[in-house]
Specification:
With 253 residues, the chain is an alpha+beta fold. The protein contains 13 helices and eight strands. The chain starts with a helix and ends with a helix.
């Protein structure tokens, strides 16, 4: 098959999986080498380990399939709702439940795509990690950044909250990846960005003052652990981007 027909088959599988899970999503394809180069060194080594014996073939012209599933609107609406002076954590946990569901669906989809393309699935970053590390930098060696693959493949651009922003779904998405030596047509990175929008910055003091903080990612990790929700999530910046962001009129096309 040609590279275009391979990509068409990959898209068909993804659409079948999205329908099976009752989700909306988006898919892109980047060159394996471009993703590998863009990763921080410790994650580059992690990706090489995950690829194992497939690495030589991947280096010869392999691909990274980036997949994203979007949160349903009802899950976004319950983020950080107030109940009196406090947060309504029962409601907020409905967002945490969707986080887990999207991770499960992404992993099932990635496994099917890996089987169909002879590749390797790289699962969604799961809950349970933030509490196990003593500092956010200890987390990096455990995972491969799906955001890099999403940027390189045109799933979205890196927003001011450091999440991937998709023109249709904003940053209200979860990501997973598949590496494959199967020849696939590449999808190009998106041109555009957040412009003057600062909705996510206004919603979160860690983001708003990230240039002044010693390590805002570590402050964010500690806050998430402190929240004590059913998954290691917050989502305030996601809700702000989706509801108040400059691209909000495009998100629900």
């Amino acid at each position: 098959m040609s590279s275009v027909s391979n990509l068409q088959r990959v898209r068909q599988i993804f659409e079948e999986e999205a329908e099976r899970h009752g989700l909306n999503g988006v898919l892109g394809v980047a060159a394996f080498n471009s993703v590998l180069r863009a990763l921080m060194p410790v994650q580059r080594r992690r990706l090489e380990e995950l690829c194992g014996g497939e690495l030589p073939a991947l280096l010869e012209g392999g691909s990274v399939i980036s997949i994203a599933y979007a949160y349903p609107e009802h899950a976004i609406d319950v983020i950080a709702l107030k109940k009196g002076e406090d947060y309504d954590k029962d409601s907020w946990n409905r967002y945490a439940a969707e986080y887990k569901r999207l991770n499960w669906a992404l992993n099932a989809t990635a496994e099917r795509l890996a089987e169909e393309t002879g590749g390797v699935a790289i699962p969604a970053t799961m809950t349970g990690v933030a509490e196990k590390v003593e500092h956010v930098e200890d987390f990096y060696a455990r995972v491969v950044s799906h955001r890099v693959a999403a940027e390189q493949s045109g799933v979205g651009w890196r927003g001011k909250n450091e999440l991937i922003v998709n023109p249709r779904f904003s940053c209200a998405i979860r990501l997973a990846s598949v590496v494959t030596a199967l020849p696939l047509e590449r999808t190009l990175p998106l041109e555009g960005g957040c412009g003057a929008c600062r909705a996510c910055l206004d919603a979160c003091p860690f983001l708003r003052f990230k240039e002044r903080l010693d390590n805002y990612r570590e402050q964010c990790r500690r806050y998430i652990v402190h929240l004590g929700l059913d998954a290691e999530v917050c989502g305030k910046c996601i809700k702000a981007c989706y509801r108040d962001g400059i691209y909000r009129d495009q998100f629900r096309l």
